[in-house]
């Protein structure tokens, strides 16, 4: 079935939730998501209460009817009474608020005059208090896309939910290490024209968020499991019928297909004369969706009385350069190719790279950039080992910059670091030309008549990390 999204009066908007790389929003606990054994365990039951309108939210009521008990895991050294809902929230994290204001300005939004936190009723167990604290920061922004402006309806700052550990019919287990991490929520207007446009818009907003260098980075750009740091929800409708919200996208590349399949589901239901329900649905691994709960409404919101009202001051807010602009500058200033410049900026290592490139004048910036963003991946692929390149690279580049080791040795030393070995730099020190010449003559003598490539292979095996590869080639040609 080929869909004409314009004729279908397709309406689509996206909500992006991004964790910030600061301490928690309402206490000084670190934003460290843990998986180890907890030393605190508590049990709770939650109930829904009426919101500011005097009504109980339908989604909250749906959760209460399940009658579940909730078990919460906590840690005495990285969680506190705020997460346990045994102590009122502290003052709002000023750094998190400042980052949110930065993002709002980058999205061309209007900062509101007075920031008031609200309580959003959430009784699925993901918050110990039975609600999530959230505040509207800005409205009426926009991003430019290939298909025109996509308006930004709202930008909010809120607290992240607890991490689900296990679900059963009678109880759910949550880990509180994630609860309270600052979270920016960005909601667009229904200006997205088709599934591919949705993907483009999500990528553009994600790029703007990463440009702050203050967002948490996980294993990918979209939450694939409970530990990743950004998630995206999509709202859509066709022909002016009921809106559906889709949660749980596994990755960005599958977003267009899931949206397309959901639109087809709507078309089929309408063709059969069936009613479309306003509901929240889950994105499945097979790229379909399934029912989660009724769509929440305004009845779940009511004022938070424990947090002071904030009058934001944007006079000192500095807007960072976009990743795309930084990438172009790296290309120009350090003669990097576009792909490598993009990788450096997206990795958040721009400033560190610039520092290294200026410090080590005898090393080409291209090699430094390659070492920072590609060597770790190659070590993981070949040896299934992780290594923090940034932690070790300066020590190694010092040797290279002074001409004591070869470029090839940099990778070999990082492999040893990844394997947890204590590196003996003496075995990587470069040989003199006379030492190299002596070894090359031995190889030629033992392999008389062998082709150049075969000799070169043996030479590299003997001299890897002891001499520059280019020098080995030149000297071997002369000896032959």
Sheet with most strands: 11 strands, mixed
How far from one another are the termini? 67 Å
Helix fraction by DSSP (H/I, runs of at least 4): 25-40%
Would you tell me the structural class of the helices and strands? alpha+beta
- Average pLDDT rating: 91
Quick synopsis:
This protein is α+β, with helices and mostly antiparallel strands and about 475 residues long. The chain contains 14 helices and 15 strands.
Indicate the topology.
Layout: E1 11-19, E2 40-44, H1 58-64, E3 69-74, H2 94-106, E4 110-111, E5 117-121, E6 131-145, E7 148-159, E8 163-167, E9 171-175, E10 182-188, H3 195-210, E11 230-237, E12 244-247, H4 255-271, E13 279-283, E14 289-294, E15 301-303, H5 323-334, H6 338-347, H7 350-359, H8 365-373, H9 375-383, H10 389-401, H11 407-418, H12 433-446, H13 452-463, H14 469-479
Parallel strand pairs: 3-9, 12-13
Antiparallel strand pairs: 1-10, 1-11, 2-3, 4-6, 5-6, 5-15, 6-7, 7-10, 8-9, 11-12, 13-14
Q: Can you describe this structure?
A:
The chain is of the alpha+beta class. It has three domains: 11-303, no CATH class; 323-428, no CATH class; 433-479. The protein contains 14 helices and 15 strands. The protein has helices at 58-64, 94-106, 195-210, 255-271, 323-334, 338-347, 350-359, 365-373, 375-383, 389-401, 407-418, 433-446, 452-463, 469-479, and strands at residues 11-19, 40-44, 69-74, 110-111, 117-121, 131-145, 148-159, 163-167, 171-175, 182-188, 230-237, 244-247, 279-283, 289-294, 301-303. Strands 1, 4, 5, 6, 7, 10, 11, 12, 13, 14 and 15 form an eleven-stranded mixed β-sheet that branches. Helix 12 (433-446) packs across helix 13 (452-463). The model is unreliable at 219-228 (pLDDT under 50).
């Amino acid at each position: 079935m080929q869909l004409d999204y314009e004729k279908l009066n397709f309406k689509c908007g996206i909500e992006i939730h991004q964790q910030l790389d600061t301490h928690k929003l309402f206490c000084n606990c670190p934003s460290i998501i843990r998986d180890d054994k907890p030393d605190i365990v508590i049990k709770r039951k939650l109930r829904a209460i009426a919101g500011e309108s005097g009504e109980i939210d339908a989604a909250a009521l749906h959760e209460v009817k399940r009658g579940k008990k909730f078990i919460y895991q906590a840690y005495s050294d990285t969680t506190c009474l705020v997460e346990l809902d045994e102590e009122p929230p502290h003052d709002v994290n000023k750094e998190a608020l400042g980052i949110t204001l930065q993002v709002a300005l980058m999205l061309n939004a209007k900062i509101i005059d007075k920031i008031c936190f609200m309580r959003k009723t959430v009784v699925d167990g993901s918050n110990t208090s039975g609600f999530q604290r959230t505040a509207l920061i800005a409205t009426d922004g926009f991003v430019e896309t290939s298909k025109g402006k996509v308006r930004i309806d709202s930008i909010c700052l809120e607290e992240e939910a607890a991490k689900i550990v296990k679900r059963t019919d009678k109880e759910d287990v949550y880990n509180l290490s994630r609860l309270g991490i600052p979270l920016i929520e960005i909601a667009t207007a229904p200006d997205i024209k088709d599934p591919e446009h949705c993907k483009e818009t999500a990528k553009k907003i994600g790029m703007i968020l990463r440009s702050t260098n203050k967002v948490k980075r996980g294993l990918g750009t979209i939450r694939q499991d409970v530990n990743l740091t950004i998630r995206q929800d999509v709202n859509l409708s066709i022909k002016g019928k009921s809106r559906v919200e889709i949660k749980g996208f596994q990755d960005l590349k599958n977003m267009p297909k899931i949206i397309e399949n959901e639109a087809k589901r709507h078309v089929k239901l309408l063709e059969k004369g069936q009613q479309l329900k306003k509901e929240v649905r889950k994105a499945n691994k097979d790229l379909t969706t399934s029912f989660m709960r009724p769509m929440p409404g305004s009845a779940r919101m009511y004022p938070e009385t424990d947090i002071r009202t904030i009058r934001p001051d944007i006079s000192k807010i500095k807007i960072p350069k976009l990743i795309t602009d930084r990438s172009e500058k790296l290309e120009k200033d350090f003669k990097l190719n576009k792909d490598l410049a993009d990788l450096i900026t997206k990795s958040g290592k721009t400033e560190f790279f610039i520092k290294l490139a200026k410090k080590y004048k005898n090393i080409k910036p291209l090699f430094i950039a390659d070492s920072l963003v590609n060597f770790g991946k190659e070590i993981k692929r070949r040896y299934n080992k992780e290594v923090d390149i940034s932690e070790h690279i300066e020590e190694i580049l010092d040797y290279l910059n002074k001409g004591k080791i070869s470029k090839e040795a940099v990778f070999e030393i990082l492999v040893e670091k990844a394997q947890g070995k204590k590196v003996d730099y003496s075995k990587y020190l470069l040989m003199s030309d006379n030492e190299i010449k002596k070894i090359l003559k031995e190889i030629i003598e033992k392999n008389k008549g062998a082709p150049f490539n075969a000799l070169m292979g043996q030479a590299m095996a003997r001299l890897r990390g002891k001499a520059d590869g280019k020098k080995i080639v030149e000297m071997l040609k002369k000896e032959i």
